[in-house]
Amino acid sequence: MLTLVIGDKNLSSWSLRPWLALRHLDLPFREIKLKLDTPEFKEAVSRYSPTARVPVLIDGDVHVWDSLAILEYVNEKAGGRGWPSDAAQRAHARSISAEMHSGFAGLRQNWPMKAAAKNVHAPLPVEGAKDVARVDQLWQGCRSKHAANGPWLFGSFSIADAMYAPVVLRFNTYQPQLSSVSSAYVEHVLADPPMLEWLREAHDEIAA
User: Fold this and answer.
1) Which of 47, 81, 42, 75 has its CA nearest to residue 63?
2) How far is CA 181 from CA 154, 157, 173, in A?
3) Per-residue pLDDT for 199 more than 90?
4) In Å, how far are 10, 164, 186, 203 from 115, measured between CA atoms?
């Protein structure tokens, strides 16, 4: 069975991405959760990751680190079901996923993921506001093309949705002004059963 090493569900945006994809692709896995920002974390994570970061996917002797690399490995394990079947859509989904992977620093740095929090007031600098507008634009573009095929960015769930899931949680926490299309997408993702499971456990972490 696959093993996914993750951080706190309240804080670890990168951990959420492969976790959500594994759930949606119906790939059984066991979970090892390491508490971030503790003296024990570095020693614990070094048993699994050469970069001393989470997440890490373990499949027998194979260790895969970095969220996007894990998602590609998971896609292969699922017979390619992680990306749209259409080549043009697949290229688009990969492009916006890579953009998420390498960009949006203003949004990330100023609005860290706090999955269990809501209605937090934290003004964004100009670069962060541009990032929010860009995400809104991306989501509107995807939904306008694929709304007839389902409620996810490309109709059916894909790795692109996993990549943007932490942004959904950030928007739920900090409540920016979004288009009606993007707001509807946020509500859909928040009501997704695996996401609800993640959020319940994030709240449990805070309560503990």
Assistant:
1) 47
2) 14, 17, 18
3) yes
4) 5, 14, 13, 8
Rounded mean pLDDT, 164-175: 98
Q: Read off the pTM.
A: 0.97
Confidence of residue 156 (pLDDT cuts 50, 70, 90): very high
Residue bearing tokens 């960015």? 153
Q: Is the dihedral of CA 15, 164, 27, 91 positive or negative?
A: negative
All structural domains of the chain? 2-80 (3.40.30.10), 87-194 (1.20.1050.10)
DSSP annotation of 152 = B
- Residue 208 has a pLDDT of 83
